[in-house]
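INFO batch 0412 | record 1 of 1 | parsing
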Amino acid sequence: MRPQVMGQCFHIGDRLIDLGSPIKQIVTAGNRHLVLIDPFARNNRNVYCFDDQGNQIWQIEAAPNVDGLVKDAWIQLFLVDNERVRGRTFSGFEIEIELRNGKMIHGTGGDTK
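INFO prediction complete | emitting tokens
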């Protein structure tokens, strides 16, 4: 089941979900739907995971800070396979995201912890 995007809302199952910011991308991995909202509209925790019924499973942990000073933001998601997703940040980090909980696993472009 693919979510239908309408600006800052998406429709999945019988639910219409409004995230309050423009949706930039949705990536589906198995029965999980990762929704990337505009990184400049809210904060650096701008990826949400929903199930097929539209229940929010998690909100991603914050993207790594640049030099500990500037808050980074997620700008793109990549489906590796039905079990793995990677995210790219504005500063160039590319990090694998744990689908169970939205935690960063490992990545390139800098230290993830």
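INFO post-check: The CA atoms of residues 57 and 100 lie 8 Å apart.
INFO record closed
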